[in-house]
Automatic annotation (TrEMBL):
<keyword id="KW-0812">Transmembrane</keyword>
<keyword id="KW-0677">Repeat</keyword>
<feature type="transmembrane region" description="Helical">
    <location>
        <begin position="420"/>
        <end position="439"/>
    </location>
</feature>
<dbReference type="Pfam" id="PF00432">
    <property type="entry name" value="Prenyltrans"/>
</dbReference>
<dbReference type="InterPro" id="IPR006311">
    <property type="entry name" value="TAT_signal"/>
</dbReference>
<feature type="domain" description="Prenyltransferase alpha-alpha toroid">
    <location>
        <begin position="80"/>
        <end position="177"/>
    </location>
</feature>
<protein>
    <recommendedName>
        <fullName>Prenyltransferase alpha-alpha toroid domain-containing protein</fullName>
    </recommendedName>
</protein>
<feature type="region of interest" description="Disordered">
    <location>
        <begin position="1"/>
        <end position="22"/>
    </location>
</feature>
<keyword id="KW-1133">Transmembrane helix</keyword>
<feature type="compositionally biased region" description="Pro residues">
    <location>
        <begin position="1"/>
        <end position="14"/>
    </location>
</feature>
<dbReference type="InterPro" id="IPR008930">
    <property type="entry name" value="Terpenoid_cyclase/PrenylTrfase"/>
</dbReference>
<keyword id="KW-0472">Membrane</keyword>
<dbReference type="InterPro" id="IPR001330">
    <property type="entry name" value="Prenyltrans"/>
</dbReference>
<feature type="signal peptide">
    <location>
        <begin position="1"/>
        <end position="48"/>
    </location>
</feature>
<keyword id="KW-0732">Signal</keyword>
<feature type="region of interest" description="Disordered">
    <location>
        <begin position="393"/>
        <end position="413"/>
    </location>
</feature>
Length: 449
């Protein structure tokens, strides 16, 4: 409900928030770093008339217990939270050092920033606390147990930065601050649900709930027919957005990153918005279900001609498979028990997502594990890849697991899937366009699909 973002057409000007750039930075950070090395001299040549490629980042010593090998500046807490939550979901007991690192990132007021290099130094007014990172940490720590005080403080902080419309932005509101967005609101809903809190009970001063805000991002009968049912990222740019829609479908159903297996035989029909009968208004359970149905129907309609995956594209390039949002779509479809519709994209992920996850890092493996879990699929035999072993290999050795021993080939990521190196090289060629564009996980999706 979330960093490994697909490449999309050139975005509109975005807020300067580092937190927004971090929403799903784990989708591309590792791929960019690898592609930059592979593409090397080709990147400046490809963009001879554009900005020069930035210098390669210096190697840095990463903190003990942190998952992944890329710079954690924008996604440290996010990728750690997803990794630990995915391990817990499949019965792996994470290393104590990994859990301690995540818990140690919390500020005294309960919020989390994307990354604090020196956790011993207190947070101040310049520390950019982030609702997405905080909500992800809540979901992980609540699942792991033993961190009740930290979880409660984080939830209290999230409530303190709720907007008047009932929703959240990535960064807390303030003078000139950001408006609520669908993704941030959905991930906070997931955090509230993970702690046993009913999201509808968490209301702003004006009485608006998170569901009031979330359903406000839905494109209804006054939108173009092809856009109906989709969710937009923010109201100021009401364009259908696949990332926001997948997150909103799951959020509207009151679920977080982990969705209980619906079973492969679950087959509730998707109902697209029927404007002739009138829209279901409000934010009660019936309205939320109708919104989820509409969002799911729109997502299915955005799959390629074979119904297998969503698509994205770099500027000036042909559309390419959008692996991260396809994985999120599978989770969203499973959350609504749209079992039949989830099977084709799930099968495509099994065949093609191995190389993408290897390049993108722990959060990507976690996304695939969530998709496998939600559909009742074995993540240890996911199209020839042991996702659990591969995830474990990106961080400290787990403290324990009842799972089969890790397979070396899976941990090494030898199954590159069907979209491995060509996708990475494509990202490398785009590197010269600027790292900020490539890692602006959620924001650059605003005009996609």
């Amino acid at each position: 409900m979330a960093p490994t973002a697909p490449l999309t057409p050139a975005p509109q000007p975005q807020p300067r928030s580092a937190a927004l750039r971090a929403r799903r930075a784990a989708r591309t950070l590792a791929a960019v770093a690898t592609a930059a090395v592979l593409a090397g001299a080709a990147a400046p040549a490809a963009y001879a008339d554009g900005p020069a490629a930035p210098p390669q980042p210096k190697q840095q010593k990463l903190p003990k217990g942190l998952y992944g090998t890329t710079d954690p500046q924008y996604d440290g807490v996010w990728r750690q939270s997803l990794a630990l939550l995915a391990q817990h979901t499949v019965g792996v007991r994470p290393a104590a050092s990994a859990v301690d690192w995540l818990a140690g990132q919390q500020c005294a007021d309960g919020g989390f920033a994307a990354y604090r290099a020196d956790p011993g130094k207190g947070c101040d007014a310049h520390t950019m606390r982030d609702t997405n990172q905080t909500a992800a940490a809540v979901q992980a720590l609540a699942a792991l147990g033993g961190h009740g005080d930290a979880v409660q403080k984080a939830v209290t902080w999230l409530k303190s930065v709720q907007h008047a419309d009932g929703g959240w932005s990535s960064m807390p509101a303030g003078p000139g601050g950001e408006a609520s967005d669908a993704n941030s609101t959905a991930v906070v809903i997931g955090a509230l649900a993970a702690t046993g809190t009913k999201p509808e009970s968490v209301t702003a001063k004006g009485g608006k709930s998170p569901y009031d805000a979330l359903l406000g991002f839905r494109l209804g009968c006054d939108a173009k027919e092809a856009e109906r049912g989709a969710f937009t990222f923010q109201l100021k740019n009401p364009a259908p957005n696949a990332d926001a829609t997948a997150a909103a479908v799951t959020g509207a159903l009151g679920k977080g990153f982990v969705v209980a297996p619906a079973g492969k035989d679950a087959d509730r029909p998707i109902t697209a918005p029927d404007c002739a009968k009138g829209e279901v208004r409000g934010s009660d359970a019936a309205a939320r279900t109708a919104a989820a149905d509409g969002g799911a129907a729109w997502l299915v309609g955005q799959l390629d001609a074979d119904g297998q995956h969503l698509r994205s594209a770099m500027p000036g390039a042909e559309q390419q498979p959008d692996v991260g949002n396809t994985a999120d779509t599978v989770v969203a479809l499973a959350a609504g028990a749209y079992g039949a519709e989830a099977q084709k994209p799930l099968a495509w992920l099994e065949k093609n997502a191995g190389g993408w996850a290897k390049q993108s890092g722990p959060a990507a493996y976690a996304q695939l594990i969530f998709a496998a879990h939600a559909t009742g699929t074995d993540p240890r035999a996911f199209g020839g890849t042991d996702l659990v072993a591969a995830l474990n290999a990106t961080g400290p050795e787990p403290a324990g697991s009842g799972a089969p021993s890790a397979q070396k080939d899976a941990a090494d990521g030898k199954d590159d899937g069907g979209i491995g190196m060509w996708w990475v090289i494509g990202v490398g060629l785009a590197f010269g366009a600027g790292i900020g564009f490539l890692i602006s996980g959620r924001n650059k999706n605003k005009n996609a699909l």
